[in-house]
Structures are given as structure tokens and as C-alpha cells.
């Protein structure tokens, strides 16, 4: 997300096909399971599923462009049956 962009409800003209916006945001929401780096941005744009505007659509397109540029990032889950999550932290 662009930190200078403030998304508000009814911020501009409503988009022509809000169903397409809902489908795309739903797919992005599913993608956050393996891409936690987009979780915040997707949670912001998912607040406007009821009445998406042009600025909201542009924010979704910006998320898609980020994903396209960073294909190697994300979490990889192995095919073994381990469901344990291991984390390391450097807490000074």
C-alpha cells in the first residue's frame, strides 16, 4: 500500500462492475495464506466490498503489480505431514 494514500468509503465514482472487484479481492484474500506481506493491503481494500470506487480499484491493481514484481517471495509448504510452525526471533 502506498502510505500516502487514504482510502475512504464513497471516495469517488463507483466502479462499473463491483462483482469483479469482489472476486479479485476474494482471490487476494485467499493468497494471503502464502503471502503474508500483502495481508495489510488486502485487509484495507476488503473493507470496501460493499461499494468499491475507482480509488479502491486502483489500490487493488497496485497490489497485483506488487505481486507480479515479487514472484519469488512467499511461504512454501512442504509435502510432508508436518503442521508445526517454527519461528526465530532476535529480541534484544
Q: How many DSSP E strands?
A: 0
Silhouette: elongated
Number of helices: 3
- Estimate nothing, just give the exact number of structural domains: 1
Helix content: 40-55%
Strand content bin? under 5%
Main sheet, how many strands, which sense, barrel? none
Mean pLDDT: 82
Low-confidence stretches: none
How many angstroms separate the termini?
29 Å
Order of helices and strands: HHH
Structural class: mainly alpha
- What Rg do the Cα atoms give? 16 Å
Describe the protein's topology.
Elements: H1 18-31, H2 39-45, H3 54-69
Describe it for me?
By secondary structure, the chain is mainly alpha-helical. The protein has one domain. The chain is 40% helix and 0% strand. The radius of gyration is 16 Å and the shape is elongated. The mean pLDDT is 82.
The gist of it:
By secondary structure, the chain is mainly alpha-helical. The chain has helices at 18-31, 39-45, 54-69.
Keywords:
mainly alpha
